[in-house]
Amino acid sequence: MKDWSTLALGAILSLAAPAWAIQASEVGRLDWHLPLIGPPQLSSPVDPPLHRFHHTSTSAAPNASKKSLLLTYTVKNVLAALEPSTGDVVWRRRYPSNHPNARHLSCSASSVIVLSGASGSDLASLNGSTGAVEWSLSGAEGREGQALCWNDGSTTDILWLTKDGVRRIDGITGGVIWARNNGAESKGSLRLVQIDAERFGVLDISPQDEQPALSLQLIDARQGSLVGQPSSAKSHVQASNALTVKSRAVDGPTSTLVWVESGRLLSLKLGDKLDKPSRLAASTSASAQVAQVRDVGLSHLGIFVAHYEDGTAAVITSVGEDWSVDPRVPLCGLRRPPWGSSYRPPLVLLIPPSESLPRDGGAPANFPRLPQLGSFQIYSLAATEASPAGMLTGHTFPFDQDKFGSLITFAFEASPPNAYTVATRSYISTSSGVTQAWEGSHLVWHKEESLSTVDSPALYWDVAETVQHDSSSSLLADSSLPSRLRRHVNAISRIFDQGVQSKPTAPASNGRQLVFVASSAFRTIFALDLAQQGRIVWRACIDGRAGSWDPFQRLRMLDLDDGRPRVSITLIKDAETASVSLVELDALTGTILDVDSSTPAVSAAFSQVMDKQQHVSDKITLDVSGTSIAGVSRSQFGIKTSIWTAHLPEREQVLAVAIPRDGVVASTGRILGDRSTLLKYLNPNMIAVATFSPATRSSSVLLMNSESGALLHKIGPIADVDDESNLSLALQDNWLVLTYRVAGEAARASKVVSVELYTSGDDSLGMLGVNLERIQALTRTFVSTQALEIKSFTRTKLGITTYNALFANSLGQIVAVPRRFLDPRRTLHKPTKQDQEELLLPYEALLPADPRWTLSHRREVEGLNKIESFAGRLESESLVLASGLDLFGTRVSPSRSFDVLSPTFNKAQLVITITALSLGLAVTRSMVKGRQVHQKWYFL
Amino acid sequence: SRSPSNNLQSSAKQDATALIKPANLDSLRQQKAWELALAPAKNVPMQAFMMYMTGGGVQIFSVMSVWFLLKQALSGLVRSFPLSFFPFPFADPLASPSLRALHHDLRHPLFLPARSLTQQKLVFAACQLALLAVGLWKCNSMGLLPTHQSDWLAFQERVTVRSVLEEGIRGRTWGRGGWV
C-alpha cells in the first residue's frame, strides 16, 4: 500500500514538473528566426544604383585587402550589407517608413555614406564592415537632397545639397567645413556635379515651361564661393531622363549632361559657359529611338548605357573629347581603355533588359514565356595582358520566369583572375521577391525576400490532423451540448490513439504543421513547416493574368472529396463585371491545380463551396477613415455596399481598430473565489475602436457591433494619450488589451490597459436573467518600461489553457505576458482567502520585465508587424508566428506543459515497478490464502 | 462440519436465559437500545470538531475523512438501522431453528411481548442524519457540492450570434500604418 501511494505521488510530481521557459539548450529547437531584408527596391535609372558591391576595408592603406559586401536597399526601407558568398546579413539598418528613399554612395572603402530622411535631409556615414553610425547630420527638409563625393587629393569629403544650401562635410569626422545658402528658391530639380578639380556645380533643371531651362551655379569647392552662374535657355531636359556623366577631356575631367529628347541623345558640356546641346554622333546611325539613359554606377568613369525603343542597348563611353558608342548588343569593339591597367569595375547587361517590364513590381502580363534561361553579358573593362581593351564574356543560367517572375534589379562585380577569364558575381532580384546570387553560371544562394511582405492572415493546417484548425473554426457554431460532448469524446479517443507524448513530435512526412502565408504585393504564397524550423515547403507565384490580388482576400482550405486538400485564393479578375478567378493549389506540394475564371453567378457558387457557411452574401468588412468607420458589404466581389457608417463626435479621430479572430471558448464564465460566476460577454461581431479627441487630449475605446454599427460600450476616457502615442489594441473573446506610449516628453513609459468584458446580468437567475446588452468592463492599467505594444493573444485547441498576451517591445523582442499578471481582478488589498483561491495576485502598477517572458530570447526580430497564434497539437501548446520584416516562429505553453510528461520521466522505472508489484501480489495472494485456511483449522 | 464449540455455546446460553426475569429483561432491552441509539450522538460533536479543524482545503486527508464520515452515516442509515436493533425485538421462536429446538414452551419469558423501540430507532436515525449533515457541511465548505451556477457552466446553452465579419479582416488591427 505504501509503495502504491509513493508511486502515485511520484507520478503526480513528475507530471507537474515545470516547463516554464525554454532553456538555453532548447533555443533553436523549438523556435526559429529567419532574418530578412525585403525585396530590393527599384531605383530611377538616372540615379546611382541602389544595389551594388562595395569593397570595404578596415585599414586606410592602399594595398589593404578589401572584403566584398553586397549593399542593397529594399522596399522595406532596409539598407543591408550581405555576404556575397553566403547571402548572410552582415549588417542592416532599417529606416522609418516615412523616409522612403535612402540613397547610399561610397566615398571611401571604409565607410558608406547614406542620404536618408523624408527628402534626403539626413546624412550619415556608416562603417562599411559593421554598419555602425560614424557620424550623422540633419538638414532642412523640403527638397530632394543630393550628395557628392569630393576627392581633394589627400582627403575625401562630401558635398551635401539640401533645401537650405550646400555644405562641405569632412568625410572622417562629419564636421561642416563650409556652408553656403542656395539663394533664390528654384522649382526645378537640383543636381550636384563635378566641373573640374576645383569647382563643382549645382545644376538646376527646371520644368519644361520655365525659362531658362538649365542654370548652373559654379562653386569653388575649397571656400564655397560662387564663381560663375551660366544658364542655357533652349532645351527640353527632363530631370527623370537626364544623366550627368564625367567625361575625360585632355585638360582633366569635366562633366557632361546627357539626356533623351524625342528619341535622340543630346549632350551638353557643363563648364563656364553652357553651349548649345550637341547630338551624340553615334545615335544618328541607329535607326531605333533612344528610350532611356541609365546610370550603371560607372558615370564617374564616363560610361553609361543607352536603351533603345526596340529593347537593345548600347554602352557609351567617353573617349577624350568625343563619345564612343559601342554597337548595340552584342557588345564589342571597345577601342582602348581610357585608363591604366589597374582594376576597373566591369559592366553587366542583363538580357532581356529589365526596362521593358513594369516598374511597380507587378507581374508582367505580356512577357514572352520562352526558354527558361537568363543570361548575363559581361563587358569587362578590366585590362589584362591578353585583352588590354577589356573583354566581353557571358553566362547563361537557368531561370524560370513562371516560377520567379521577371528580373527587375541586378548588381554585379568581377575581376580577372588570369589573362583570359573574368570571374563574375552577380546578384539579381525578380518581380516575385526572389533574390539570387550567381558566381558565373553557378547559383550560390537563393532567398525568398517576399516573406518580409506577407500581409494576408496566415492559414494553419496540421497535416497529421484530419480536421483543420484554422481561424475559421467558428466560435459559436459548435457550442451546442451534443457537439461539445462529441468534441470531448473525440479528444479523449485521440489521447488513446496517440498515447501520452513525452517528446515533441519528430518531423515525419505527415508530421508537418504547415502555415500558409501570402504576399499580395509580390503575388506569392508560401507554405512554411512550423515543425521544421519554418522551412519553406513550397512557394507558388500567381500569374498576373489570373486577376488582381486584394489584400483582404484570405487563403482558404478546400477539403475536397479526393483527399487532397487544396489551398485556394480568390482573385478579382475584373471589378466592373464582377468576375473573379479562383486559384487552387495542392496544399502539400503547391502546384497550381486549377485557375477558374468565372462570372458572378458561378463565383457565388464557388464562394458557397469555399465558405461552407450559408451567409456568403452579407459578410461585412470595414472601411476606416480618420473620423468615421463604415461597415461595408462586398458581396459582389469588389462592389461595395455601405451598410452603416458611424461618425465620431466632432474632431475626434480613429487611432486604432481591433477585430477579434474566431476561436473556441472553453468556458462561458469566470468563476470567482466565492464561487459566484461572471458571465463572459462573447460577441463575435464586436469590434474595438480607439478614438482620440484633440480637444480633451484623451482617448476612449468604443466597443461596436460590426453588424449594425451600434455602440455597445464605451471605456474611458484615458487621459494621458496623444495622437503620437503608438496606440495599439487587440481583442480576443472578452479580453481587450490596449497599449500606448504615455504622452509628455519626459515620459518614457508605456501603459498597458487590460479590460475584461462581462455581462452584467444577475448571477442567481442564470442565463435566462442575463441581459446581453449590458456590459460590465473590469479594467486595470499597468505601467511598463519596455515600450510594449500589444499584437495578439495565444490560441489553443480547446481554449482551456489560459491565454498569454503577445507583445512586441522596442528591442525587437516578442514578449508573452501571462494572463495572471494582466488580470483586471488583481486585488488592490492584501489577497483574502477567496482571492488566493482564485489565484489572484495583488495589484502592482509596474508590470515586471520577466526575462522568461521573452519568447525571442536574444534574437532581434526586426520590423515586427504582426504576431499570429495557432492551436498546436496538444491543448497546452500554442504556435506563434511573427512577421513584419523578419519571420520568427516558436511554440509556447502558456499554462506550462500540463498534458506532456516531462522529458526526465522514467517510463522504464514505472513499467518495472508495476510489473514487480503485480508479480508480488500474485505470489503473496496464494500464500495468504493457504495461511488463512491453515489458521482456521488449527487456531479456532 | 461446524466446529465443536457451537454445542458448548448453546448450552451456556440455555443456562443464562433461565436466569433472566421477564420484567428485567424488558427494561434491560430498553436500556441497551438507548445506549445503542445514543452512541452515534457522542460522535456528532467530535466529528464536527474534527471536520472544522481540517480546514476548507481539498487535500487527500480531509477528503478521506469526509468520505469515511459520509460512508459511516449512510451505512448507519441504510444498513445498520435494522441490524442495530436486531438483538432486541420480540424473538420469533419459529424464525430461529436453534430457539425452537431448545424451547418448546412459548410461554417462556423470552418470548413475551415487550415495549416498542421506535423512540430509540428515531433517535438513532436522527444521530446518523446529524453526522450526514456534518459531512455535507464539510463538503460544502470544501466546495465539493455543485450548488453554484459555476458548477453547471459547462452545461449552459449559449446564445448563438451569427458572425457577420468577413474572414479576411478577422484578427486584424487597423492603426497608423493601415491594416495589419
From TrEMBL, chain A:
GO CC terms in record: EMC complex
Cellular location(s): Endoplasmic reticulum membrane
GO biological process terms on file: protein folding in endoplasmic reticulum
Membrane topology: Single-pass type I membrane protein
UniProt-listed InterPro entries: Beta-prop_EMC1_1st, EMC1, EMC1_C, Quinoprotein_ADH-like_sf, WD40/YVTN_repeat-like_dom_sf
Subunit structure: Component of the ER membrane protein complex (EMC).
Official protein name in the record: ER membrane protein complex subunit 1
Coiled-coil region: none
Family: Belongs to the EMC1 family.
Pfam families cross-referenced by the UniProt entry: Beta-prop_EMC1_N (PF25293), EMC1_C (PF07774)
PANTHER family per the UniProt record, alphabetical: ER MEMBRANE PROTEIN COMPLEX SUBUNIT 1 (PTHR21573:SF0)
Swiss-Prot/TrEMBL keywords: Endoplasmic reticulum, Glycoprotein, Membrane, Signal, Transmembrane, Transmembrane helix
Signal peptide start and end residues: 1-21
UniProt main location, coarse: endoplasmic reticulum
Chain ranges of the ER membrane protein complex subunit 1 C-terminal domain: 733-937
Classification lineage: Eukaryota, Fungi, Dikarya, Basidiomycota, Pucciniomycotina
Top-rank lineage group of the source organism: Eukaryota
Domain spans labelled EMC1 first beta-propeller: 26-314
From TrEMBL, chain B:
Cellular localization per UniProt: Endoplasmic reticulum membrane
The keyword Transmembrane appears for this protein: yes
Pfam families named in the record: EMC4
Topology relative to the membrane: Multi-pass membrane protein
Protein known as: ER membrane protein complex subunit 4
GO cellular component: endoplasmic reticulum membrane
InterPro entries (alphabetical): TMEM85/Emc4 (IPR009445)
Keywords: Endoplasmic reticulum, Membrane, Transmembrane, Transmembrane helix
Endoplasmic reticulum as UniProt keyword: yes
UniProt xrefs under PANTHER family: ER MEMBRANE PROTEIN COMPLEX SUBUNIT 4 (PTHR19315)
Transmembrane regions: 49-70
Stated family: Belongs to the EMC4 family.
